[in-house]
Amino acid sequence: MSEARAILALADGRHFVGHALGARGTTTGEVVFTTAMSGYQEVLTDPSYAGQIVTMTAPQIGNTGINGEDGEDERPRLAGFIVREASPAVSSWRADESLEAYLQRHGIVGIQGIDTRTLTRHLRDLGAQNGAIGVVDDVNDATIAALVRKAKEAPSMVGLDLATGVSTKEPYVWREGTGRWHPSAPGATLAKTLDKRVVALDFGLKRNILRCLVDAGCEVTVVPAKTTAAEILALAPDGVFLSNGPGDPAPLEYAVDTLRALLGKKPIFGICLGHQLLGRAFGATTSKLRFGHRGVNQPVRDLTTGNIEITTQNHGFIVDEASLGQDARVTHVHLNDGTCEGIAHQTLPAFSVQYHPESAAGPHDSLYLFRRFVDMIEARG
Amino acid sequence: MPRREDLKKILLVGSGPIVIGQACEFDYSGTQGAKALRAEGYEIVLVNSNPATIMTDPELADRTYIEPLTVDALTKIIERERPDALLPTLGGQTALNLALALDEAGVLERYGVELIGASKEAIRKAEDRSLFKQACAKVGLDTPRSGHAHTLEEALEIVKDTGYPAILRPSFTMGGMGGGIVWKPEEFAEKVEWALSQSPTREVLIEQSVIGWKEYELEVICDVAGNFAVVCSIENIDPMGVHTGDSITVAPAMTLTDREYQRLRDGARAIMREIGVATGGANVQFAVNPKNGDVIVIEMNPRVSRSSALASKATGYAIAKVAAKLAVGYRLDELRNDITRVTSAAFEPSIDYVVVKWPRFAFEKFPGADPRLGTQMKSVGEAMAIGRTFCEALQKAARSLETGKDGLCTLLPPEGGADYPALAAALDRLGRRDLANEPAPEPKPHVAQAIHDVATTRAAVLKLVQVATADRLFQVGDALRLGATVEELHGLTGIDPWFLAQMQRIVDYERAYAGKPLGAGDVARVRDGKALGFSDRQLSRLAKTDESSVRAFRHQHGVRPTFSRVDTCAAEFVAFTPYMYSHYDAGGPDGTCGDAASDEAFANQEPSNKQKVVILGGGPNRIGQGIEFDYCCCHAAFALREMGHETIMVNCNPETVSTDYDTSDRLYFEPLTLEDVLEICHREAQGGELAGVIVQLGGQTPLKLAKPLSQEGIPILGTSAEAIDRAEDREQFDVMLTRLGLRRPRGGIAHDEASALRVARDLGYPLLVRPSYVLGGRAMMIVNDEDELRQYVRPAVEVAEEAMREIRRTKDSAARPTILIDEFLKDAIECDVDCVCDGENVVIGGVMQHIEEAGIHSGDSACVLPPHTLPRFVVSSIKEQTRMLAMELGVRGLMNVQFGVINQATFIIEVNPRASRTVPFVSKATGVPLAKIASKVMAGATLASLGITDEVVPKHVCVKESVFPFAKFPGVDTILGPEMRSTGEVMGIDSTFERAFGKAIAAAGQGLPTKGAVVISVKDDDKPVAVVVARKMHRLGFKIVATGGTADTFIRCGIPTEKVAKVAEGSPHIVDRIKRKGEDEVVLVINTTTGARAIRDSYSIRRQTLLAGVPYFTTTSAALAAVDAIQDGGVAGGQVEVRSLQEWNATEG
């Protein structure tokens, strides 16, 4: 473990003293926690965490290092990383480098050696809030106060367009499936040919979504977040996919406009932020949860079948069910708090889920949704 | 789908006696199941032959049958009770096998009983190796290359494909019984024969070895609608090749990426579906190739298991309770998570700590047993520990084991006692030894006799660690201490480098601070050490000071543990169940430990104004201290809750009912050491009034904490620490007996060979010798002459020395190892008495007469309640003496006394001012809940106020019989002696002794025969009784087979006898005769012997008997009882009757 001391300070004044992890420096962001026990590499690279400092509740992180396959993006997107204990050793036949080296290489500031359970309980009870991590020469009132101030000054998540920052700048085509990691789970598909053409609007897309779409038989053209409906229609896709992404959907009015223009013209499938945007396109409102759903053990009921899926989730905002209106219906609900986890248009081919059927990390219980999307495309002939 | 309304009455089947591979975990699951289903309004009929279980408490079911778990008895029960359904999935392999047998016998169909929880097809598919293999292949999962053999010839064909080493797995056995690893062609035939003999279907799977692959287990749950969740993933530190029950395991899995983990999850789900497990808990084991991630499925169990108990305790998710509800129709999403109250049971627990399970072995009890671990389980118990990090959990687990280690300690001298070169040489010899039917040479020298240089020692350690044995992880620690690298050790052991690197951190810490005294500036050092799991005692050794100084330093600087909750959800939701573990986390405002805001001991709870009582449990199961003590601890929790106290349980055994978060008001899953208990008391005292600690119910483990706790000012409830000491200390005890005018066998004490011989000359032989302060007759022996005494003394002093380390630390720093030498009461009848005393009155719980004579450990002997042959005045005298002792000692609570009776004269053999092993048996026999009464007395109630004034002597007869693990230890003699070796017990209840004994024997798995040949070979002293036995057997139509003198005696007495040659006289001899199948095959063996030489000579008879699965007796007293049972016990006529405990006890009043 590094000898350098680091402090995590929260906007409400609470602070934790630990040791430096990754890059030496200071970072700010919204402090959140995920209860996923496996898949820290996927968490690190999930663009949905842009602007956030992520706490892993699982205490031993970094055990299997970082490998070339499991990244959900080319680089880590989160603002900071908090772990109880970063592994001094790496053990995996696939590992390329250690967590520490990876974070340093990408300039991600982190902290280790703090009581992450106490932090998690604090966030649970008082809600997610902004925080700052700083590597300090000395832990004293002044260095602590300086970090608390930084945390307070950090911009709020609400109203922030974070998607543009992580979206692709140029369109590209994706044809790679899950390959040797193809899951043998219920609902998994493995198409022989890519005979559907899908445009994916990238708000902070996870790669495994692309792989799952390819497995379902789609060739995917990924386009920047601000691509217009006309530009999309010009590509003549069989369907349109709305990706996950970071932060608040409310400021992304441009995307909602795009969706309204596409509704009814192309089958639409959205995940996470994409789900919230579709909800807004249906006329619903979105709001912020106190501390969000982040983990890979979240139970969701599919109202169509009554079955339960254990899902991967990573969201701080939800679609307000009451605001959904006549045109759309709730298709999935969270078993614990009853929040809306999926919606579909009553008549038009458009549906979305709040959770992550592509998992990465997490269970493969919801792969059927990709099949459902392709079926929808096929039904349109 | 809600609960099924078409079911009214459900039959629950337990797992029977505690054996290796099936222990308390099935009491835990059965108890949860019974409670859950009863709460749903079902009528519960429960069957289990094990009286020491909570599940057989009469309050837990509508009808409780303590009857043999045989098709016969179950058929009678089903006939009588007509249940709608049978739930077999909570009772281990025993219950599953019994359910299948009942189905095959047509019983279920005949009485319209539905199998719930698992279908017979699913059970068969999961258990039958070839069906399982096909199922896996169908869903695209690999299984090891393998084949099934029913004969040696078939086996030889298969091994050509699998190659060596090959794994043997007999079908339908539990704990891997009869299985093993065959390294070389030379050992193949014998091991295959043994494996075939252990399988009820004479079938063995021969399998490609994946030794060295990583091993994982997924505990899963599913419902009738196909919903599926993984409750816990478990990673074995010991790679493939060691039975998972014998492996040190970690939860959650530590060295898998998510992709690799999800591959296992997908596999588990696919297998569940393919096997057809409709509802309930199950587990699936996988092997993963560390080089390329290849996955192989090893096995799955369509039922709850030892590891599901572990998973429940590790996560807080009550698998058995949920499984029971799923079996009656509920869906997962219809059930709530008890811990959070608001979230659904349909989820996967997330944990924010690390759990380590460490098995506990008892090789010291089985000299000659092969110490190498393999696919056949050999451990007798396990400890679990929870820490925030792996290092913390690992070291807590090590000290929970109670094998004298207070962390990942060194075994190297001078601190430890291992002579590595000698151990390596012994292992080497073992490797070369022929495993045939010969007792092994004792791989003894454990104590350093020679000083070795570092290079020699290091070479020896590196050799040792290649073979998995009970101490391997400690040896790996020593290898690191001696400079071996992580890479090197990974190569030698196959242990994942991640675990080794963590152990390296522990060793590095030691190296950094060894020999450095603690100074004011060392707060961070202590905090770091605590976070790595170091105990105060370990830190004190590094700092060259004592444990209490380290503790004082720690407290002075505010370095205290934080108590966090096991909450299933990594703090995502508020937990209402106070299930706690301690850990040391820096990260408070100034980086300190024990930040008050972090502590959850009292989180989300109204402060209670109840008086708190801490109950200390028994720790890991071991021989001599097992489920009986857990039963007592649970009863204390129930009783004190009834009295309005707040009950606080402390224990570290994941198998038990006591560590169910439902059992007490508050649960601390912690090691039972002074340090850990003191911290708990400290924390609890801050949240209310601590009335005191109960130490007398958990066996020797908590009892030995009585004095140190008392010295720290913690009130001990019940019998005082001084009184406990007075009963344990030989000299004080003698003074007391003299004062009371009570007799004990003459005896003396010795500290070395010379004084032992001196004492022996005074007393004369035979003598009973044992080290003081040890439990379960450890190293206890009967010596017949001076030679035997000499051989005995030195190893006994070693054992005493081990016990002394603890005594010196806690009581008397000048204590010397002591050997107790007593006159041996030859041919005495032994009795056990349990009583409760409140300081004014003594109420006898029951008097038990042993069936085996004195010299057989009381824990191994069968016994009868009430005494069946003792004259009334002898029994009265025993009771009176018991009362005198209890009053004189000042007992508050339970006391157990053992007596020897010779010619109507009584001698006191032992007094234990604590709960005894027989408390649950007595309670079941008499209907009087002794442990509950005693707990209330300890908390201040009087016997009179509780309405307990008189002993209840039942009109029926109860027999307790012991169960032994000999079959798991090839090379071990089955002859009984003063050292306890049984793992469990069963009970037979009936209206006569003969019937009750017959049931007990059947329940113990010995099933008395009704025809065939009986081999009788006895020592001279036993011949008169043997004649009686032989004559009765002959009259019952058995053929009598005997050797040498025994045969001559029988013939002289006019009993037709087939005389067979002794082994020494050449083939065909007695062992060949036992092997012979067909007409007049041997169905019973009676073999008694004495003296080291004769015991050696007759060893092969007993081993072959065990191998052939033939019932046997090694005392004539037990044999006589068995003949009577065959004759008058309804065995011959198949007239066994069953009756519930509730009915038996109702007839008493």
Task: Give the helix/strand layout.
The complex is a heterodimer of chains A (381) and B (1149).
Chain A: E1 5-10, E2 15-22, E3 26-34, H1 40-45, E4 52-56, E5 60-61, E6 66-67, E7 80-83, E8 85-86, E9 95-97, H2 99-105, E10 109-112, H3 116-126, E11 129-136, H4 141-153, H5 163-166, E12 172-174, E13 196-202, H6 207-215, E14 218-224, H7 229-234, E15 239-242, H8 253-262, E16 268-271, H9 273-281, E17 286-302, E18 308-319, E19 328-334, E20 340-345, E21 350-353, H10 368-379
Parallel strand pairs in A: 3-4, 4-7, 5-8, 7-10, 13-14, 13-15, 15-16, 16-21
Antiparallel strand pairs in A: 1-2, 1-11, 2-10, 3-11, 6-9, 12-14, 17-18, 17-19, 19-20, 20-21
Chain B: E1 9-13, H1 25-39, E2 43-47, E3 63-65, H2 71-81, E4 85-87, H3 92-104, H4 107-110, E5 114-115, H5 120-127, H6 129-138, E6 146-149, H7 152-162, E7 166-170, E8 180-182, H8 185-198, E9 204-208, E10 214-222, E11 228-236, E12 249-251, H9 258-275, E13 280-288, E14 295-301, H10 306-315, H11 319-327, E15 354-360, E16 381-387, H12 390-400, H13 420-432, H14 454-464, H15 472-481, H16 486-493, H17 497-513, H18 523-531, H19 536-542, H20 547-556, E17 562-565, E18 579-583, E19 611-616, H21 627-642, E20 646-651, E21 666-669, H22 674-685, E22 689-694, H23 700-703, H24 706-711, E23 716-717, H25 721-728, H26 730-740, E24 747-750, H27 753-763, E25 767-771, E26 781-783, H28 786-810, E27 819-823, E28 829-837, E29 842-850, E30 863-865, H29 872-889, E31 893-902, E32 905-912, H30 919-926, H31 930-938, E33 957-963, E34 984-990, H32 993-1003, E35 1013-1017, H33 1023-1035, E36 1039-1043, H34 1044-1052, E37 1057-1060, H35 1070-1075, E38 1082-1087, H36 1092-1107, E39 1112-1113, H37 1116-1128, H38 1141-1146
Parallel strand pairs in B: 1-2, 1-4, 2-3, 4-5, 18-21, 19-20, 19-22, 20-21, 22-23, 35-36, 35-38, 36-37, 38-39
Antiparallel strand pairs in B: 6-9, 7-8, 7-9, 10-11, 10-13, 11-12, 12-15, 13-14, 15-16, 17-18, 24-27, 25-26, 25-27, 28-29, 28-31, 29-30, 30-33, 31-32, 33-34
